Amino acid sequence: MALGKPDTGRQFRVLYRDFLARMVDLELISSRGDIERLLGQFAALMAGFSFTFVVGMIPKFVVSPLPRAELATHAWGEEEFLVGLTMAVAGLFAVLAWNNVFPDRRESLVLGVLPVRARTIFLAKTAAIATALGVSVVAIDSFTGAAYPLLILPDAGALGPLRPLLAYWATMLAAGMFVCCGTLAVQGVAAQLLSYRLFVRVSGLLQLAAFFTILGVLFLKPPLPSPHALATGQFPAWFGWIPSFWFFGLLQRLNGSADAALTELATRAVWALGIVSLVALTASTLAYARNIRRIVEQPDIAPSDRSRPAARWGSRLAARWIARPVERAIVLFTARTLARSRQHRLLIAAYGGIGLAIALAYCRGLIYGPARWELSYERNYWDRPNTPLMIVSLVLLVFAVIGLRAVFALPLALPANWIFRVTAVDRPSQYFSAVRNSVFLLAAGPICVAAAAVYMAIWPLRPALEHIAVLCAVAVLLVSRWFDGFQKIPFACSYLPGKSNINVKLGTYAFLFLLLADLGVRLEFWTLSRAPAFGILFGLLAAAAMWAHHLWRQFAEAPGNRIQFEDLPIADVNPLDLHGGGGGGWAGGEGSTNPAGASEWGGA
Amino acid sequence: MLELRHVSKRYSGIAAVGDVSFTARAGEVTGYLGPNGSGKSTTLKMIAGLIDATEGEILFHGQPIGRDRIAYRQRLGYVPEEPHLYPHLTGAEYLEMVGLLRGLPGSQLGGKIDGFLRLLSLYEDRYVPISSYSKGMRQKVLLAAALLHNPDLVLLDEPFSGLDVNSALVLRSVIRELAVRGKVVLFSSHELETVERVCSRVVILHRGRVVANDSIEQLRALMSLPTLEEIFSQLAIEQDTEDITRQFMQLMEA
After folding, report:
1. pLDDT band at A582 (very low <50, low <70, confident <90, very high)
2. Which positions ≥6 away from A246 have C-beta within 8 Å?
3. Closest-CA residue in chain B for A598?
4. Per-residue H/E/C for chain B
5. Closest by alpha carbon to A144, among A96, A232, A224, A85?
6. Contact yes or no for A134/A325 (Cβ under 8 A)
7. Of B71, B73, B88, the CB nearest to A341
8. Which of A45, A327, A399, B237 suits A557 as a labelling partner, its CA being 20 to 30 A distant?
9. pLDDT at A583
10. Model-level pTM?
11. Does the ipTM exceed 0.85?
């Protein structure tokens, strides 16, 4: 039976729906595995931020007695922040969608044998990206995009009140498109210049670099020059190369400003957008025209005789330093998985990125002086002990440890975990100890060592050593508490959808942590020049760390403890445990034991 | 000696394996046969300790395997049906991990791994991630991982899957030699010709129940059939293959 010519429109619709559903990696930010729910949650989160921003910022403009033109100038700082934020959100979306933008091996193998033109695939993918990008930009600007243009209305031109609205949205969409196309262009050019094998290897690093560049630019860029400085050109020349300033200039130009400096920034925005769009389009077109065949012909990972010197050195060092074989196996497995699994790397980067963002925000004052809202504080300097730099090490430590715990819970090649089950020839406490030591070796240790190197290089020795001692005590306290009850081998336990990795709780904890860290560091800073006070503070911290370690050991060596290979559902009904035997305690949570077959993997 | 006594496994009340009893002796290769879905792999998983039996007992050298699981696991080598491995590790790294998890001393481990990789023609690819390995190469890694610690009980679930002719011949010989050296070898496969050559006795499973448990010679004599394939067809195949083929073609051309 001969089949008719395939309906291209239908193919496009089917592919568009599929690509849109797979635009971001669901495994990475799981939300019951439901794309609509996931996108809804993210859109709501961003819209919530936009609403909060409006509630916080707009009233001062509503009640201000200033004339409209002056009011509009006063809003420049916020407008530039919103442009930067939109660019960051679009950039982060592009980073999350990184693996789904260009055809990969699986996609090429599936679609390559079907009667679908590369052009149809390309158009469907482009449409899906545009849709997802549009949703991101609309969500983050949903309230500010209505409030700012209308409240800070410049002189209405031919379009009347419609003009600022159109200007705002056109600018935000252009800014988002610029970052998204920029990311695509980097990826696309790399895909064209490198062999597919090399591209697959480099792609993950590029993705991480893009992620940290976007965060770095958002949080480290200088404050927008004042209107006077802009008008008179009294700002460093390199300020003119900051993309969010370009698009801020574009916004003002579209709103009718004839200022020369703003016009120049706007011109740069238009050129930059044109160039990156063209490069992204060309690279993407070429990728779809050429790469599908290239991809099918080559494996994802090169079957070469690479000797992996770094991995071998790591193995030798582990053999020298870690005596117990089980511990060595777990540490090496953890390190190798973090180094090679793109998904896990990206998730840990997300946590590290949040930490880094907060750290950079603290460092900003050291570069550009205190912000307007910080005027009550003294100016801090790099080469003297200061609270911002002290907090930075603490923030990075906390987010690295939290991130590792979250990443450990996310499985890799779950069916392969049978090997841990059939080789479990040691007591569970040995495995828990190995996991804890992995955290020290892979996160807490390197951060403490790096911090020690930095502080000892830029600060006088005594305060540097004092802060490092505090940091080490906090590391022990944190790791012991955070991994108390963690009964899994990293990456080897099932993970139920619905326990999202990035959730609202994190925001609450982060806020509380920052509050505590700020207070704690101020206290520590005060004790740095007072030896007895520092002695008391450090003594208290060391005692807390020892207590936490003792609690952790109690958990690890508790009789009947099991290695957990199956995640447990969050129970709808919690047992009251009225018999007091504790037998009903499997009400979910990572620390619970598995009631079914719990004896299976326990120690002797 | 491995002994299964009235072992059953039920999932939500549905029996995957029902009342299976047999013995696999040291120095013998016991073939474990059955059509797809008959419960072979489930039985092997229960023996490996990966899942618990709903009923019955599994004994190794007279001791229930659950009595001292750690000691039991030290003596067990298992090749699962599916080559589930960690794809981001290289072949050598995977074997290193398995060896360390089994507590093999580091001084022995490197040499053993290199030796196994050479014998299995994987040495050249020792630094290549398993994700790039072919199915046969993955199967070889599984074999090496199962034998690395010189186990006393070897469970092989479709060990020939994906192997080339040379490797299959080597494996066939290795399986025989394992038995000669006093190991208990339980071997599940669909390749009846190989089973006939390698195994001294067979257990045939059908719909989760044992329908034959004897030496191959004895079965041939009892059933007056010349080959294991014919014995197997008689005991475990219910379908009319020609009729199914005809229906298949009709459906395809409809």
Report:
1. very low
2. A265, A266, A268, A269, A272
3. B52
4. CEEEEEEEEEECCEEEEEEEEEEECCCCEEEEECCCCCCHHHHHHHHHCCCCCCEEEEEECCEECCCCHHHHHHCEEEECCCCCCCCCCEHHHHHHHHHHHCCCCHHHHHHHHHHHHHHCCCHHHCCCEHHHCCHHHHHHHHHHHHHCCCCCEEEEECCCCCCCHHHHHHHHHHHHHHHHCCCEEEEECCCHHHHHHHCCEEEEEECCEEEEEEEHHHHHHHHCCCCHHHHHHHHHCCCCHHHHHHHHHHHHHC
5. A85
6. no
7. B88
8. A399
9. 37
10. 0.78
11. no
Residues from chain A that touch B84, judged by Cβ atoms under 8 A, are 413, 415-416, 418
Decide if A121 contacts A104 (C-beta within 8 A): no
Tokens 């120690």 label which residue?
A603
Which residues 51-90 of B are in CB contact (within 8 Å) with A?
51-52, 66, 68-71, 73-74, 76, 78, 80, 82, 84-90
Q: How far apart are the first and last CA of chain B?
A: 54
Q: Which residue has the tokens 């005789």?
A: A305
Listed in sequence order, the residues at least 6 apart from A462 whose beta carbon sits closer than 8 Å to its beta carbon are none
CA distance B83 to A416: 8
Dihedral of CA atoms A305, A309, A314, A318 in degrees, nearest 10, equals 80
pLDDT for B112: 93
A37 touches chain B (CB under 8 A): no
Compute CA distances B53 → A29, B18, B211, whole Å.
Answer: 37, 10, 20
